[in-house]
Amino acid sequence: MTKSDGGKARSVRIAQEPAADELLGRSPLAALVGMLLDQQVPMEWAFTGPYTLAQRMGSEDLDARKIAAYDPDAFTALFTEKPALHRYPGSMAKRVQQLCRHLVAEYDGRAEAVWADASTGAELLERLQALPGFGAQKAQIFLALLGKQFDVRPTGWREAAGAYGEEGSHRSVADITGPDSLAEVRAYKQQAKAAARAASRSA
What we know:
Layout: H1 18-26, H2 28-37, H3 43-56, H4 64-69, H5 72-80, H6 89-107, H7 113-116, H8 121-129, H9 136-149, H10 157-161, H11 179-202
């Protein structure tokens, strides 16, 4: 999947669905799209999305150039077809196309080029934050995912990923390696949301 591991596919268990996880493990673009979709839906739903999208496009993988050039209305239809790929299929279809157009313009359509030659964690974080749909938090989580599960570890990657890069943490999708860790991450997210609500009430 990456320059650092010679393109070897990784075994991941994020989507909790074998075919979807197999695609995530071998396709840099699928991993990026899954991270993009990981917003206001269960993590498994988000990371199964790339596999479902590839199926609906009649392919075994996602292609940034093909997605970038796809008719926008037809591409949205791929997302809205039941079962929908996201809670907000229309807006997410647009974001995925924007992401792929950025990859075509800046990285010759190669998702892995975003991180292949990044020399430091700070540089990689900056590149990720420049991607359409990737804010600071999402960029840090994806950086942690690359480091923890795909051996993409430029100097200072844990520091750049912030708390998400901490070893042994269960804060995000970067820490999901099976059903048990998924449950731990979900519990952490629920606790964080409860704490945030309590803080807003007392403010």
